[in-house]
Write a structure and sequence with these properties.
Blueprint lengths: L1 H26 L1 E6 L7 H13 L6 E4 L8 H6 L3 H9 L6 E3 L29 E3 L8 E3 L3 E6 L3 E6 L5 E3 L2 E7 L6 H18 L6 E6 L10 E2 L10 E2 L3 H7 L2 H6 L4 E4 L7 E5 L2 E5 L7 E10 L2 E11 L2
Parallel strand pairs: 1-2, 2-3, 3-5, 4-6, 7-10, 10-13, 13-15
Antiparallel strand pairs: 1-16, 6-7, 8-9, 8-12, 11-12, 14-15, 16-17
Helix pairs in contact: 5-6
The structure holds fe (ii) ion (FE2).
The site of fe (ii) ion has 7 residues, from loops.
Length: 314
């Protein structure tokens, strides 16, 4: 009998130890669904929900880099609450949804838009907000012009929505997609203002940052739209040159390098690329059934990208 009890105790010890180890490992991992550019495709959100159930996937949170809706500038300035319906559908997949507005979303998703100023040329970004106390219940949150701590192990995300004019690589004066609500100068001012705030928020050398924007930096593969078949004269530039110029500096390439930069907007630019030392991910548009899964792991006192999955719904 005594031998039986000893064996049972030894077995229980190792079993509990293993459970605690697994729990700790899980705590140091994040699985994030990136779903961008829904453009009111409820059908594809439903398909995505089915995909997650079928593949038994659970996400700690969803990141949505904007374009919930299909509003033109006039409609966006009039205000619209269509995004709320999209948000409710996404929350069926994970209750934690962090999002920013795209250029086809209501002005109410921005903290301020130049069009509401008496003189839009004089628009200035509002102060950056920061939620630096970690709360495991992230819930659904608009993070435009904000920082949020998304993991107790010093992982933050900063968001900035909206777009600027997209133009032909071969002719900068040829606007292909009109931006909303910013000009390049205004966007650059807002984005720089957001990034400069990191200097005050960052407290430890291992504090990690994910950038979530609707448009990405100019001159990289994920913000270029190519025609099929390829035609150099039709190639579109949809990123921000000011954001590119800021993030190519030694400060961000070698010292304060973000863990990852996620953007949407350029449906055809889906994929992952390296902007120098900064990895950039564009999941493609969920309106075309495309989405990504980002798996992060905290080990050796720092956050690492385990892998980025790219999926396409049938
Ligand atoms: Fe967009």
């Amino acid at each position: 009998m005594l031998e039986y009890i000893i064996v049972l105790l030894i077995f229980s010890y190792f079993y509990i130890k293993r459970i605690l180890k697994n729990k700790q490992e899980k705590k140091n991992c994040l699985s994030i669904l990136i779903a961008s550019d829904v453009h009111l495709s409820f059908e594809n959100i439903k398909k995505l929900e089915k995909w997650t159930k079928k593949n038994n996937r659970k996400f700690d949170l969803i990141l949505n880099p904007g374009d919930f809706c299909n509003l033109n500038e006039e409609q966006a300035l009039a205000g619209d609450e269509g995004y709320l319906v999209v948000l409710e559908e996404l929350k069926k997949i994970s209750k934690n949804v962090l999002y920013i507005p795209g250029n086809h979303d209501s002005k109410y998703l921005f903290d301020s838009v130049p069009q509401d100023c008496e003189n839009p040329e004089e628009w200035q970004p509002l102060p950056v907000q920061a939620l630096t106390e970690y709360n495991s219940r992230l819930s659904d949150r608009n993070i435009h012009n904000k920082y949020v701590k998304i993991h107790e192990k010093n992982l933050y995300i900063a968001g900035f929505g909206g777009s600027i004019d997209a133009y032909l690589y071969s002719d900068k004066d040829k606007i292909e997609w009109p931006g909303f609500p910013f000009s390049e100068q205004q966007y650059g001012m807002g984005f720089s203002h957001l990034m400069n705030a990191w200097d005050k928020i960052k407290k430890n050398s291992n504090d990690a940052l994910i950038i979530l924007t609707h448009i990405g930096p100019a001159w990289i593969g994920t913000t270029a739209k190519h025609e099929k078949p390829y035609n150099e004269n039709e190639k579109i530039q949809s990123g921000s040159e000011i954001a590119y110029n800021m993030m190519k500096t030694i400060k961000y390439q070698e010292k304060d390098t973000p863990l990852l930069w996620i953007h949407g907007h350029t449906h055809a630019g889906k994929g992952m690329t390296d902007f120098g030392t900064i990895p950039v991910v564009n999941p493609g548009g969920l309106c075309y059934g495309r989405f990504s899964v980002l798996n992060l792991k905290y080990s050796n006192d720092q956050w690492n990208i385990e892998n980025v999955e790219f999926h396409s719904l049938k």
